[in-house]
Write a sequence for this structure.
């Protein structure tokens, strides 16, 4: 009989030797149109910069519409946390969520594969991330 679910332990065993870095992804979407979102962008970005400085925020940004021409207020951010519960608490602390302009869902994310290229030129102070 075929398994209907794969356990965390099975995934960790199958990906042994890979990065196996646990993060949490917060998907954030407007609850009442773009107006309340735009009103709260400054305090939201201030909060994002704060948790970035604290080492919590890994990456964040908007989701474009499928044609890549517009932003309807949706976003996503990746955070470090010790559990899904802590990740939910961190997400709830975002002013955008506190005021009700956006709602959120949190999903645990195990990073195994991928590549980032970071180039730093000391003489010019130029940094490139691909």
């Amino acid at each position: 009989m075929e398994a209907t679910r794969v356990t965390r332990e099975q995934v960790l065993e199958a990906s042994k030797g890979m990065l196996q870095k646990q993060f949490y992804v917060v998907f954030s979407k407007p609850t009442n149109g773009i107006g309340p979102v735009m009103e709260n962008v400054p305090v939201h970005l201030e909060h994002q910069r704060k948790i970035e400085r604290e080492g919590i925020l890994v990456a964040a940004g908007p989701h474009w519409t499928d044609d890549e021409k517009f932003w309807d207020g949706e976003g996503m951010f990746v955070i470090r946390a010790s559990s899904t519960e802590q990740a939910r608490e961190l997400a709830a602390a975002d002013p955008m969520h506190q005021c009700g302009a956006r709602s959120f869902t949190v999903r645990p994310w195990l990073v195994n594969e991928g590549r980032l290229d970071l180039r730093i030129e000391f003489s010019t102070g130029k940094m490139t991330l691909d």
Summary: The chain has one domain: 19-129.
